[in-house]
TrEMBL record, chains A, B, C:
UniProt keywords, alphabetically: Copper, Endosome, FAD, Flavoprotein, Ion transport, Iron, Iron transport, Membrane, Metal-binding, Oxidoreductase, Transmembrane, Transmembrane helix, Transport
Listed PANTHER family: DUDULIN-RELATED, METALLOREDUCTASE STEAP4
InterPro entries per the UniProt record, alphabetical: Fe3_Rdtase_TM_dom, NAD(P)-bd_dom_sf, P5C_Rdtase_cat_N, STEAP_metalloreductase
Biological process, per Gene Ontology: copper ion import; iron ion transport
Membrane topology classification: Multi-pass membrane protein
Catalysed reactions listed for this entry: 2 Cu(+) + NADP(+) + H(+) = 2 Cu(2+) + NADPH; 2 Fe(2+) + NADP(+) + H(+) = 2 Fe(3+) + NADPH
Cellular component annotations (GO), alphabetically ordered: endosome membrane; plasma membrane
Record domain Ferric oxidoreductase: where: 248-381
Requisite cofactors: FAD; heme b
Gene: LOC113059863
Descriptive protein name: Metalloreductase STEAP4-like
Membrane spanning stretches: 201-219, 248-271, 292-316, 346-364, 385-402, 418-441
Superkingdom of origin organism: Eukaryota
Protein's organism: Carassius auratus (Goldfish)
Length: 473, 473, 473
């Protein structure tokens, strides 16, 4: 053993000998945290109002009064709800120079004007406050970070304190990410209260579209039949109407997911640069393309199931039966229509292939799959294969319509069938894309996106942030 | 360049200059480990019984006798099977003060009374033993940790030695997790020998349930028909009976996955606190809810396929054909039954929507997806959407039954049809949940779960470990 | 607070006080990197040709001339395209002793004889060049590494410089992996330009096989019918032929995914050791088994959809109708064939169970799922369940054929039906496997794979790299 490694060992020993960590609060989170710290080789001291009656604390930990516990350690976790922070003001001198870790969350957003961590910092001005671990649940702490989120986000005003927390987080098997100064604590406290913020807009679009198509089809199919023929076919609501609304919403949302990219291309062509910001609505739209696409896939999936269930429906069996019997009675024969055979088979085939590709897009949107792709692979799948999916699904819808758009009987009450409406957006997207990939336009867009052209001064890197954003993931 | 960064660079250089690592054993694991260490900038020295005949060692490594190799490095990996540890006793003096890393696994559990690492520690008392890397395969080492498990679990009695291993693991692209003292080495050695421990109970439940339902239906359908009418309809085993067993098992297991949560709620209400431990069986049940749910989904998936295949079955086509011909011959007409149309369409629709939501639950159970959700989002999906799924699937089963429970012909041999049995557990779960979400009960449970109420002294954190556990993930 | 922790704090403060990092280049990547560094507490100085006209730089950063910026920091990111590296030669003295980080990518492979990083190192010989961050997109930097690839690969000739970069990467929330010396920079620069390298061979096999089966079936079905009976049944191309090609390709590729493993077993038996390298083609084949299996699953999925769509096809409804009418007219009855009922139902049942298991194999191939399995679990699923899947799918195909291989009418133009061809490879694989699992052969193979037997000198570890490779993941 050479002298260097001796020195190194000494240094390590000094830096990593079992450190004592203090936890204020003996609730679920405090107990789970303490257990995990003990498992990872730390000594743990609990500070409690009533040290003698603190039950269920992990074996190996000590429990004492807040003041006594604070003296034992340099890092103090405050695992107490904000409403009970008051008692800390009496410990100001004991906590002087300590690192106070605020792990708290609120029950609702916007309950308090300032973040819990900043409030804590104001209460104990002599201590360094770090916000950390609030996105980790007691459950994730207990299960060893094996199957729960492993990222500890932290923020604070002093790098050394943050580094200590990052070391603790890493010893506990988490990945620590420094998110900046204590000012961003409010953002970190909002994270666990979020409920699918990026899904709101796409979900609202999906719900509105579904409702619109549903009532549109209800009027044209069920109510029209009732008014003009007096027949009650309301039972069609359950499957036939649902199977009209779902594919239409799916197709429209899939195209909505590719529309902003095409629009951005034209905007860049118009601006002659990629360094002008897009309007805000376009930015927001681009950010929720993945969600738009996945919702489209969900509706497409329901459409597939609703379609495959058709032949076992009571109504369909009844219709086929009645038709067969009528043929027998009229003594006519069912003429085989070669065009119809081609048309229906192509229609189903386009749909199946389109759905197959769509599922592939969905799978590559899974975090673990998209993380294992490089940029080129990801954009190949999401952009190239995505447009082929859109093309197949649009062709599927056109084959469904076939020549019906020529028949006046399709336009009940002077309204076009719902499927025609659904073709507007996809056609626009496909035409825009067709223009963008013509060689002369494509070369211009490519040059703009590489930062060249009318921006000779920019030394960009061949990767841009806006237009090559993940399309669906 | 200011003086500070000079000092820093010096420190870094001292701490991080190419370190030499020794590996005893030139098998697959030793070779893969050496290759990976070399790639990450370490010097590697192999210790071998027969240095001259050691083949296939990575380029750039040295090979010498065990004693000579041990002198070169501070950290010595023992990549040798436990049975061959004997030779180490002759190296006790060479290994004095070294860090010995035990990477071994056994072929079976419980082969030896003490863990390999503790045995190693006893053999070479002067060295510090760290158990590490045993959960990493030679394959994972070679493939650069890009698509295999990246977590290195380690344990040992000295923090400094563990820290050195954690640094090595991190340089190699792994995440290191300290699991405690050398006493837990036996647990780490068991990890690679486990075969789906959490899946055992749910799988056994699924198999027993399937067997029971299958034989129950076999008796009531096939054997009954044989005994009373003398007809052989045994061919129904392949699809009709399977399609009775699968949906029933799916529904029962889905409800079994939500039953313990409801029971826990009532138990907490009864105890008036959440700080009393649940009985062991309830704890174990709660821990395998994810597996119960995923198995239910698998059975539901098979049920969907078995149902969709119905119209292309020979038997079904035969039946429809015979029916049509009989109608023609009797010159009767098929009366359209509006109620039946509503009933069957609703039945399919409920099933499709329920299955769609169920697939969504399954997708959010994928580790990479559930890791990207925060706690609120996860429990929204697994709890709220989960109960809606259960409700839809139960409604689907009720619509299947419709008024058949009133018909005496359903009760062959005085037994109820299988689908009726399957409704018991889901109904119990839904009724319990209904009680729990009535405003007055709900507010009590919420208060208890927040640690308030009859436990004024607890300063909990708004997150609890038991009842808000992941329901399906 | 004891003196130890004071010392530790001092050390931490010195090592981690806000460090200044310099970025050359104000393009997308430079801006995103700067923003991220600022968020993580670094000071950022941009070097720009035209400091006064640099727009859109993140708030809090400074911008100055290249020379001035270089003086401010020890680490300099060169976020400039390789073509513009020229200006660096005038800064050689300013960059003396600095760490230069090459983050560049090329637009195509093989554009330059040497890697960008080595070129940079030659241009500025006094600086230490580290290649890093080139696999991270500007988008991933902006989105906080939360949903994009979090692994920073780096290489370079000096460990201290690499360690500094690893620390920066970790502060930014990434995982850093050291890939070795600057010589591997060319490999790192190729990574973002790869387009599914492991998928090429399997995709080519799948495309060739599909084309072959398609034209084979086209000849035997459509062209034969045209030539001998003069009937045009070309509409069958869309669904019937597709549904012949897809299942056959799926079955053949699934068996191709298990064939190399069986061959490797026999090769090891023949060699009597596992320490002789397999031939190169076998190695390459084994490496793409996961891709072969997943493509087989994709084709199987399409087969399922094409099959389920059968009963709503125009042609099928026509055929059933015509048959029913003919029965009525001929006044014959449809005789129920008990064997046919058994055969078709078993055929569908095998197919459904096989597909269900196949989907399970696919799910365990998802990176996040396979990462959560240990080696034993993974090989249980991929090997045991994989062979059961192959067995079920082969039985499904045999049941499809039934006794048709005995009928001369099946051999149109002296060619066997396509499904018979598809049975060759799976049968070979299953027979090979059957031989390998007979007790006497199995025990020999097991001993060889554990490194024992005729290789008494090897101290292996019970885990081997070649034959126990992931089968499908």
């Amino acid at each position: 053993m050479n002298s260097d490694s001796v020195a190194m060992t000494d240094l390590f020993e000094k830096m990593h000998k079992p450190e004592t960590v203090c936890i204020f609060g003996t609730g679920d989170f405090g107990r789970s945290l303490g257990l995990r710290l003990l498992q990872s080789g730390y000594s743990v001291v609990y500070g409690s109002r009533d040290p003698k009656n603190s039950l269920l604390l992990p074996k190996g930990s000590k429990v004492m009064t807040h003041a006594a516990a604070a003296c034992e350690a340099h890092v103090v976790f405050v695992a107490v709800q904000r409403e009970h922070y008051g008692f800390l003001s009496s410990l100001v001198s004991d906590l002087e120079g300590k690192v106070l870790v605020d792990v708290s969350n609120n029950l609702k957003r916007g309950l308090y004007p300032e973040s819990n961590a900043e409030y804590l910092s104001r209460l104990v001005p002599g201590a360094t406050v770090v916000k950390a671990f609030n996105t980790i649940s007691a459950w994730a702490l207990q299960s060893g970070g094996l199957d729960a989120n492993r990222q500890v986000l932290l923020c604070g005003d002093r790098s050394d304190a943050k580094q200590q927390l990052m070391d603790i987080a890493q010893s506990l098997g988490f990945t620590a990410v420094d998110r900046g100064s204590l000012r961003v604590a409010a953002d970190l406290e909002d994270l666990p209260l979020q409920l699918f913020p990026l899904w709101r807009l796409p979900l609202n679009i999906a719900i509105c579209l579904t409702a619109f198509i549903f009532f549109y089809a209800l009027t044209r199919d069920v109510i029209y039949e009732r008014v003009t023929n007096g027949k009650d076919i309301a039972f069609r609501i359950m499957i036939s109407l649902a199977n009209k609304a779902f594919p239409i919403v799916s197709l429209v949302m899939l195209s909505l997911c590719y529309l902003p990219g095409a629009m951005a291309g034209f905007l860049q062509l118009y601006n002659g640069t990629k360094y002008r910001r897009f309007p805000d609505w376009l930015d927001r739209w681009m950010l929720c393309r993945k969600q738009l696409g996945l919702l489209a896939l969900a509706f497409g999936f329901l459409h597939v199931l609703y379609t495959l269930v058709i032949p076992i429906r009571y109504y369909v069996r009844y219709r086929i039966n009645v038709y067969t019997i009528s043929l027998v009675k009229d003594n006519t024969t069912y003429e085989f229509d070669n065009t119809a055979a081609w048309r229906y088979d192509s229609y189903y085939s386009m749909g199946i292939l389109g759905f197959g590709l769509f599922v592939l897009l969905g799978i590559t949107s899974l975090p673990s799959v998209s993380n294992s792709l490089n940029w080129r692979e990801f954009s190949f799948v999401q952009s190239k294969l995505g447009y082929i999916t859109l093309l197949l699904c649009t062709a599927h819808t056109f084959l469904y319509g076939w020549d019906r758009f020529l028949k006046p009987s399709s336009y009940r009450w002077w309204t076009p069938p719902a499927y025609m409406l659904s073709l507007v957006v996809p056609c626009v997207v496909l035409i825009l894309k067709l223009i963008l990939i013509t060689p002369c336009v494509d070369s211009k867009v490519t040059r703009i996106r590489q930062g060249w052209e009318r921006q000779g001064k920019t030394l960009a890197n061949g990767r841009d942030t806006k237009t090559n954003q993940p399309l669906m993931a």
